[in-house]
Amino acid sequence: MAIGLATVLADDNSLELVAAADTVSGLLAQTTDLDLAILDLRLGDGSTPRSNVDALAEHGIETLVYTCGEDPYLVRAAAKAGVLGILLKSTPAADTLDAIRQAAQGTPVPTQDWAAAIDGDPALREVGLTPRQLDVLALYANGEKASTVARMTGLAEQTVIDYLARIRKRYAEAGRPAPTKTDLYKRALEDGWLPRPEQPRR
After folding, report:
1. pTM for this entry
2. pLDDT tens across 9-58, in order?
3. Interval 172-198: pLDDT, tens
4. Residue 37 pairs with which residues in a beta bridge?
5. What strands lie across the sheet with 85-88, from one edge to the other?
6. Are the C-beta atoms of 196 and 71 separated by less than 8 Å?
7. Which of 82, 86, 148, 151 is the most buried (most CB within 10 A)?
8. Beta-bridge partner residues of 38
9. 8 A C-beta contact, residue 111 and residue 99
């Protein structure tokens, strides 16, 4: 990512690439005198967007996300973490520069991708799940039993079972049936409510 950004910034005298690192901890070890950090969502140390944004914020550094946007879970996590914006790597260079200039001044960058991440997936809105139902879906689809989900959420087990029935019904009505637990796991992945499994390293 740093090489690509360096290329974008090369002909702009108003912006300076001060430091680059593979991890946020590595960046902060180099310097904390930064107006803005441009963060990729997938870092080699397996850190989360929330922990990285929080670590930068402790030093008064604002964050702009620069991502391929292929993982809705990570994008949504970044949006909730309080970043200034979410910028796709496919954004034209001129627009990328404008966004970085704006973020470097501490001004939010209202891109469509950021708004979509905050609002949630359009398909999920059509399904119409409540926040409590989403909690149940995420836990159950990730492998927990209904009784365990009940303990973790403070709900009665029968309430969890009822929620799961309503969730399945709403997905079916949206043309995305999820009759099995595996199907619910797939839907939760599609809508960004569970992190995608890490790809095995070769």
Report:
1. 0.61
2. 776 778 888 899 999 999 999 999 999 999 998 888 888 888 999 999 99
3. 988 888 998 888 988 887 777 777 665
4. 63
5. 36-39, 62-67, 85-88
6. yes
7. 86
8. 64
9. yes
